[in-house]
Structure formats: structure tokens, C-alpha cells
Amino acid sequence: MTDPVTLTAGGRDAGILHDGAGEPDQHSPRPFLHPVPTPGGLSVSDYRPADHPWHWGLGIAVSNIAVAGQAHPVNLWGGPTYSDGQGYVQLPNNGSQRVRRTVRERDGVVQHIDWRAADGSSFLAEERTWHAENLTAAGSEWILTSVRSRWANTSGGRLAFGSPTTAGRPDAGYGGFFLRLPASFDGAAIIAGSADGAGSIPEVEAMGGRRPWLGLRSETASVLMVPGTGNPGGPTPWFVRSTGTPMLCAAPFFHHEVHLAAGEVLDWSWSLLAADGPVPDDGFATAAQQARAAGGAAGVVRP
Fold first, then answer.
1. Is-contact 175 212, C-beta < 8 A?
2. Is 88 contained in some domain?
3. What are the pLDDT digits (tens) for 117-151?
4. Which one of 24, 130, 149, 224 is CB 3.0 to 4.6 Å from 268, fit for a cystine?
């Protein structure tokens, strides 16, 4: 385990990066950012909630990865795996994302990560860059945290990234860029971007839908997630819950698997913005637009 690294935005703390190495094997150890603060210092992330103790802050987690030579899909989400006809089963397939090296750069932090199956074999090499900055949009101040991630298939065979939904469970397409929200977001309004601007939509409409961005607004804070426009698969589907277990996930593997041939590369980018208080709809739309203009989620990084 390496020491946590503090991410900063203009001299302000923007969260603590953990490598996850000390977490239980069945929780699929992986790096994550927690707490994720608003400009006023209020955390919009949760860690080890009682309902899902493998949910940790903000990070990249994938529940079902088909890897050649593995008897079961590799689980890098944590906990049990959904198997068609059996439901959720605890299998010996919880892998890990192991941070090999962390480099602090002038404008961010770069993590070099090995994705491994439960037997320790490595099948994907990732370079993940974290960057944070302050952003003011329509009178609201946000902390913008961006992630650029390059995945290189090192397995020697094809990889298939999926979800419980691709394995047979409806409306359970989680996996991707994931934020577990605290209990203060229970019952939060879901704010969605559209061609007409922004507005509140019900959870049933947001779940699995493809929107350019999605956010949640509580009485104490607002969060906004913006995927890169150049991400594989086009506009992302969303996995979102605002009641009971509040969470927000840009879920590119929701409906269909994404395949990566041996030796090939996928490039991703996402941004997460956090503000104090209930930001109005137009404030979300303006912040999303400015986040793209700032480059936090402007597209993928090419090799």
C-alpha cells in the first residue's frame, strides 16, 4: 500500500487518492478518490456504506469482464457477480486494479495500474490521469475533477467489458466511471442534459438512458458528471439511483459489451463537478458546457 495522495485545485484540497491495496479481496481492490469535496468542504462521496461495503468514493469499476482463460468473468466492481439463471453469486473471481506507480505532475496525478484477475494474472495496463480545477458557472462555484484513462489489452486475447444487464439482469447496467453518493443525496433530484437545455427527470427515465450529462441536486450540494464526447460507444447510458442507495455512474457497458482485441487500446475521459447547495437547472447546463470547454471532458487522449 502506498500513502494517499491529495489532489488539489488552485491550492484547495480536491480529494484524497487511495490505491485501495488494503481493501478485502472480495471487494475487488482498486484506486479511488474520497472524500470528494465541494468548494465549501462538504463531501459528496461515501466510503464502505453498510448496504454495499465495496462502494468507495469516485473511481473506475467494471463488474463483468470476459478474459480468455478465466472460468468466470473478472469482477472489478466488488462483491458477488450476477450469473444468468442463478442471480448474484459470490464467485472466486474478484480481481483487482493494482497501482504500480504514482507520479505527481504539475497539473495532476498519473497512476499506472495493472488490472488483474483473481489468480493474479494481469490482462490490462491502464494509465489514469487525475486533474482538478476550480470552475465558476452561472454564479455557482464548482470543483471539477477530470479523469483521462488509457486501457491497453495485455491479455493476449479479446476482452469483453459488460454489466449485470449484459449478463441477463434488467436495469442493472452498472460499471464505468462511478460515484457512490452519501446518504444526504437520498431523494435528490436527477438533472439531465438535453438538446433543449436541462431539467429534472424521474429515475425510471434516467436509468439506462443516453444523455450528454447527468447530475443530482440535494438540499446541501449538487454533483454533475460529464463524459468525454470522444468516448467509445458514443453518448453514454447512465446508471443512477437517487433513493435508498444514491449513486451516479457513466455506464458505457450498460446495454452492450464493449470489446477490446489483443494489443488494442481504448481511451476514455470523464469529469465530475461538485458544488455547494442546490444549483438551478440552468447552472448545471452552463457548468457542463464550461467543463467541456475547459478540456476536462473534451475528448479522448490518443496514443
1. no
2. yes
3. 999 999 999 999 999 999 999 999 999 999 999 99
4. 149
